[in-house]
Amino acid sequence: MRGLLCSPRLMLLLLLQPWESQLQFAGPRCRTGPLDLVFVIDSSRSVRPFEFETMRQFLVGLLRGLDVGPNATRVGVIQYSSQVQSVFRLGAFSRREDMERAIRALVPLAQGTMTGLAIQYAMNVAFSVAEGARPPEARVPRIAVIVTDGRPQDRVAEVAAQARARGIEIYAVGVQRADVGSLRAMASPPLDEHVFLVESFDLIQEFGLQFQGRLCGKDLCVEGGHGCQHQCVSALGTFHCACNPGYQLAEDNKSCLAIDLCTEGTHGCEHHCISSPGSYSCRCRAGFVLQQDQRSCRAIDHCSFGNHSCQHECVSTFRGPRCHCREGHDLLPDGRSCQARDLCNGVDHGCEFQCVSEGLSYRCLCPEGQQLQADGKSCNRCREGHVDLVLLVDGSKSVRPQNFELVKRFVNQIVDFLDVSPEGTRVGLVQFSSRVRTEFPLGRYGTAAEVKQAVLAVEYMERGTMTGLALRHMVEHSFSEAQGARPRALNVPRVGLVFTDGRSQDDISVWAARAKEEGIVMYAVGVGKAVEEELRQIASEPAELHVSYSPDFGSMTHLLENLRGSICPERERASRRGAEREAERESQASSSVWSLKRSSNA
């Protein structure tokens, strides 16, 4: 089947010329000898008025290219929808002007699409001698041209076969919505010369061009309008398009597409195949070079150039050289130098007091007066410094879930160096955001393992930062005997530790002062955007010993070393000396980290 598409040049001519002149060949009219030609026109309701007008002009233009006369070409026209109507029969007119007048007066029927009925009428009536057809013994060719835009509502195959058997040559022209199967069932063989499918009524003139060429035997390639992109090959009354070497004909049978030899899978390229018309070449990925066989690829050894500047080892990658460090070392930001790894900062070392990095390993130290235990990490615990400790943990939205998990881990590291028991240290935990929630009171758990398990089960609250409300809750509820605090008569120190990462959304001054008036020793630990002024307002005096700060959640563990000496009285001296040394170092580095120590005289 040949699909007809309008070339840009032809489209321009269509816009600039009258309809009647578009379908005529230059020069004298076609002289084909005797011919009986009947046009069978679909005028069903699916053919819109302007489309029917286009088909009317197509007929007029085609007539002007034929040698019409009683002894030459006789023309008849019938239209059909749900019924068949003869516009004029074969013997009605001998003058072209009379035929054109009848076609211009044609009124569409605008009903169904009974194409089979129209073919039967053409076979039995239109091509009869009574209607003006020449008798069979005259051997005058009989040609029917069926133009339709839809699917037939009746059977066409059998009646079309009968018509062809009676010697009628049928051309089937489908427009827009026409059913291809029905066109093939109607047309005479060979189908590629008798079936035409055009995209719209505006393009029907291309069928007229080829049909007239078949009748007249003209060289349609010379006449122009063939639309072939590369080559036009002329045949008797027709033509076909061909492509230059390295190209193949597209589905429209006019355009040419470059043959992609890479898609055939026989190129042998290891990485990429680059196609060109009728040929191809191989290309390698970045970081590789093409071998002499022009197909395989070899990785480029960037390290062999000797300009990588790596301190330890050079590893070649497809993007270039990369430097690696030997075990126990880390690559510095310059991407070349290596530095010995500080395992104390890079791993969860578990040292209770202090971690000392030593090349590929580390060791734990204990403060003065204490000995390292058999596990190599813990120190002998304080048995005299029993306190009631309540931790106020910031669970606001700014903390974020992953950092809240680091906070819980930090709390459990504090619990690790406490002697947790009903008679020793009691621990309670309160979380606050826009509201306050007691996670567990002082008197609930009697062992460190129970406390740590409860801490891990705490769920992140999110929302705001009401630090003042949390301080009030601690003063009024957390240190009550009902919550597990020991009576004041026993003189067990009461310690509150507030952990926050930002500015409070309510006033803290009243309840921070009230906590101290109640004899609670207050510590403040700030992270990230915590406000120093608020931390000092929360903490007991002197602030330098009760306020700690860390720039981010990942580096909080260094605060533990300052906390460990704050719980036990016998550690006080060593812890104070350590705090003084720490303050001196951080003063020199302009850092904002303060040591945290419990006042044993509270």
Task: Give a description of the structure.
The protein is α/β, with parallel strands linked by helices. The chain contains 19 helices and 27 strands. A hairpin with a 2-residue loop joins strand 12 (272-276) and strand 13. The protein is elongated, with a radius of gyration of 49 Å. Residues 1-28, 569-575 and 588-602 have low confidence and may be disordered.
- Structural class category: alpha/beta
DSSP helical segment count: 19
Strand content: 15-25%
Spatial sequence of strands, sheet with the most strands: 1-7-6-5-2-3-4
Keywords: Disulfide bond, EGF-like domain, Glycoprotein, Repeat, Signal
Biased composition (Basic and acidic residues): 571-587
Domain VWFA: 36-215, 388-563
Region (Disordered): 571-602
Characteristic key phrases:
602 residues, alpha/beta, seven-stranded mixed beta sheet, elongated, disordered C terminus, signal, VWFA domain-containing protein
Task: Provide a short characterization of the protein structure.
Residues 1-21 form the signal peptide. By secondary structure, this protein is α/β, with parallel strands linked by helices.
Secondary-structure topology with pairs:
Elements: E1 2-4, H1 8-16, H2 19-22, E2 35-42, H3 49-63, E3 73-80, E4 84-88, H4 96-104, H5 115-126, E5 142-148, H6 157-165, E6 168-175, H7 180-186, H8 191-194, E7 195-198, H9 205-216, H10 220-223, E8 231-235, E9 238-242, E10 247-249, E11 256-258, E12 272-276, E13 279-283, E14 288-290, E15 297-299, E16 313-317, E17 320-324, E18 329-331, E19 338-340, H11 343-346, E20 354-358, E21 361-365, E22 388-394, H12 401-416, E23 426-432, E24 436-440, H13 448-456, H14 467-478, E25 494-500, H15 509-517, E26 520-527, H16 532-538, H17 543-546, E27 547-550, H18 560-563, H19 572-588
Parallel strand pairs: 1-7, 2-3, 2-5, 5-6, 6-7, 22-23, 22-25, 25-26, 26-27
Antiparallel strand pairs: 3-4, 8-9, 10-11, 12-13, 14-15, 16-17, 18-19, 20-21, 23-24
Helix pairs in contact: 3-4, 5-6, 12-13, 14-15
